[in-house]
Amino acid sequence: MFTAMNQDGECINLLFFHKRESLRELKEQQTFFCCHCYQPVLLKIGKYKLPHFAHVKNNDCLYTSKHESFQHLQAKKDFYEWLKRQLLEPQVETFISVIQQKADLLVKLNRQLFAIEYQCSKIPMQQIIKRTKGYLEEHIIPVWILGGLPYQKVVGEHRFQLTDFQMAFIRYDYKKGFYLFSYSPQNRQFHILTQLMPVSLTTVIANITQQPLYSITFPLLAHQLISTSMNNGFYEKWFQLRKEWIHTKLKYGKGFKDPFLREVYLHDQHPLYLPAIIGLPLKQMMICREHAIEWQFYYWIDNLRNLKNGQALTFKQIHENFRKRMEQRYLHLRHFPLIYQDVKDEMLHQYTQLLIRLGYLKEVKKRKYIMNKSIPIPKNMEEVIRMEKKLKLEFFAAKKTYE
Fold first, then answer.
1. 123: left (phi over 0), alpha (psi -120 to 50) or beta
2. Between the N and C ends of the chain, which has fewer C-beta atoms within 10 Å?
């Protein structure tokens, strides 16, 4: 930690000292105590690690991390200097007694308090939820920043494997979709995964970019972090992985023991011969744990398959059918503690809008639709290839109208 009290009760902030000689003099002249538990702390001035205060061994302080890593200390220092350059007045390691929480940095912008929490060590999701709730109850907006890289490993072109802990830091923006950013003090850069789309429970297809810390201003809004749009190559990769997912499902899905395959077969369909509209990429679909092929198959079966041209369908019906599938445990939602919007309804709405742009539905009133043309079902692999090729061209044309 960077702050402690001296023997006179004065707060000492090590970030105010720029020379190690001054700190060595301070260490010789004063004794220091934790601002929270009032136990003695040591001023450590190593050759490589940043100067910091540390509790003596076997202390029982509940409010201070016992072993802050170099990465954590350096990130706090970076953010402190970054905020100061923006003429803000950040407070370091401020303890908020009402909720018994200590923020890495507390800063006010336009009369709104923000708490910056840099998290490079794994903690339970429930702790993130609890701390977030505590800040919000005190009208403080928490800004959680993941440490290191925003993924566990790269598993292919545009493909990244994430841990549950990393997924807890995912955010959502109405225009940009799901995104995840982290900060690396080693190169003073944010690493940003954008347009996250799940291809399995732990793997996403996404774009990755980097932004230097000083190219961005607080409070880290989505439009600052995300400056690139997805090109057709990104979506081509999605369509390739869509085919791979179907073949993998057939190989390892265990037939009728798999809920999705069972539903496909019970409705006299075959996974290889599904309509081309099933499994289309959307910015919102990270919210669903199941692959896009699964939830869009249920959308088609429950809402569209038996709908004749000119017959009506409402968004309320679409919403209700999705809810029933969730109750029956065919579909499940992911929980992201840093996302407060109802992304599920937005996902269903955007898929419906995409079907309108592709000409299959027509909106006659707000959120009321009619079937405009029938959805073709391929009968053999030649038709599958032809319909998928045609659908991709239509999708790319439709995409231009809403991106």
1. beta
2. C
Structure tokens at 174: 């109405």
Distances in Å between the alpha carbon of 185 and those of 64, 191, 357?
21, 11, 45
Q: Residue 35, class by beta-carbon neighbours within 10 Å (0-12 exposed, 13-18 middle, 19+ buried)?
A: buried
Buried b (16+ CB within 10 A) or exposed e, 183-216: bbbeeebbbbbbbbbbbeeebbbbbbeebebeee
Contacting residues for 31 by C-beta, under 8 A, at least 6 apart: 6, 7, 40
Q: How much is the CA Rg of the chain, to the nearest whole Å?
A: 26
Contact present, 266 and 290 (Cβ < 8 Å): no
Helix (H, G, I), strand (E, B) or coil at 323: helix
Structure tokens, 303: 């809402």
Please give the single-letter amino acid code of residue 206.
A
Find, among 305, 206, 315, 219, the residue nearest to 264 by Cα: 305
pLDDT digits (tens, 9 = 90+) for 26-40: 888 898 888 877 888
Query: Quick check: helix, strand or coil at residue 148?
Result: coil
- The pTM of the full predicted model, rounded to 2 decimals, is 0.88
Residue 186: the pLDDT is 93
